[in-house]
Design brief:
By secondary structure, this protein is an all-alpha fold. Helices cover 75% and strands 0% of the residues. It is built from 14 helices and no strands. The longest helix is centred in the N-terminal third of the chain and has 51 residues. The C terminus is likely disordered.
């Protein structure tokens, strides 16, 4: 019997993963809605009863206390009116801040590979790339970022023009290498963060053990010896497609432990900001149950969103659709309950898309401006 080819097998596996995750999300949503209906009905009945008792109470102090308790419970009913929009705003700002450090990593890598690109352009290229996450195929992200790093209408000293395709080709290969380095490193650091933080979580022992193994294993792909070989293979494929030659062995020499260490710390700052953003967003959403204080919520929220984003990236689905939400939901449910967790992951997806779209638009305007006005002039 003839086995299916690799080109046919990979899309089939992606579809199977997507359908499985979609079923899991649908089941979680149905259970959450059922529980939401039951709890809101019970809570609404309690609120009505408290208000009736307050209306019939002759003691003003007791009546006022009953009214206050009724209002307190009413504020816990999930609705747009009960959302703390100031915290949603802070969560958006924190997430935006968390997307900036990877641009610094990309610029540091470009400098190491001797690619002429300013820090501002590198950060703009990094932010612009987020727009490609939601288009099928991760290659769109790379195309957007490399195209922004090496604009065809050159204004930066030392870059090559459109009339010199052969001279420009090595720059494309090296820029692609830098983009992959930043992405792989960001995902590796995210895996390590999730693994370490989940070790002390209320999840089952086997889940925490797997998380710890993931934290250890995530260091391997981003170590310079391994990363050199991976990126060398990627760069070689890219350069062969461009001009039929390969110079990746020369371009990977700047991949050092020093570059990795500095980039690792910067990526860690990014994940801390993203985790803090998600935790603040969780507290902004009204809950039928008591939400843990922010200092207790930040570690588990950071682990949940980091694990969701990393596995969503590994799924190769556009934007990690479904996978990110499902994984994040699994981690959050034991801490804040199913209904609150489901609302949190939905709100996070919507907020993150809005923030990424705004930053990508601003980055596009910045890049367009630098094509007209040389940087530093």
């Amino acid at each position: 019997m003839k086995l299916p080819s690799k080109k046919k097998l990979i899309p089939a596996v992606k579809l199977a993963v997507f359908l499985f995750v979609l079923f899991g999300l649908f089941r979680a949503a149905v259970l959450a809605i059922e529980r939401w209906d039951d709890e809101t009905s019970a809570l609404s009945a309690e609120i009505v009863e408290l208000r009736q008792l307050a209306a019939s109470e002759r003691d003003p102090v007791t009546a006022e206390a009953l009214v206050v308790e009724a209002e307190r419970r009413a504020s816990g009913l999930p609705s747009f009116g009960n959302v703390r929009w100031d915290r949603v705003g802070w969560a958006g700002l924190l997430y935006a801040a968390g997307l900036i450090p990877p641009g610094w990593v990309l610029h540091r890598c470009l400098v190491a590979f001797k690619i002429p690109c300013s820090r501002r352009r590198a950060i703009a290229a990094q932010l612009l790339g987020h727009a490609g996450k939601y288009i099928p195929g991760k290659a769109v992200v790379v195309v957007l970022r490399v195209g922004a790093i090496l604009p065809r209408s050159n204004v930066e000293a030392g870059a090559v023009s459109e009339s010199e395709p052969k001279a420009r080709s090595p720059f494309i290969g090296r820029a692609t290498t830098c983009v992959f380095f930043e992405t792989l490193l960001m995902m590796g650091v995210g895996g390590a963060v999730a693994g370490v933080l989940l070790w002390n979580s209320p999840l089952p022992v086997w889940v925490r053990s797997l998380a710890l193994l993931m934290a250890i294993g995530s260091v391997i792909p981003v170590s310079p010896p391994v990363l050199r070989r991976v990126i060398e293979w990627i760069a070689a494929r890219r350069e062969r497609k461009t001009d039929g030659t390969s110079s990746s062995s020369r371009s990977t020499s700047p991949m050092t432990w020093r570059l990795l260490g500095w980039s690792y710390l910067v990526s860690l700052v990014s994940w801390i900001l993203i985790g803090l953003s998600f935790a603040v967003l969780v507290t902004a959403i009204p809950s039928l149950e008591t939400t843990p204080p922010l200092p207790q919520l930040v570690p588990i929220a950071t682990a949940a969103i980091a694990l969701g984003m990393v596995l969503g990236f590994a799924s190769l689905l556009p934007g990690g659709a479904g996978v990110r939400e499902y994984v994040t939901l699994l981690v959050l449910v034991p801490v804040i309950g199913q209904t609150h967790a489901l609302l949190a992951v939905i709100a996070a997806r919507l907020l993150f898309i809005v923030v990424e779209a705004i930053l990508a638009a601003l980055a596009s305007l910045s890049l367009r401006r630098t094509r007209l006005v040389p940087e530093g002039s």
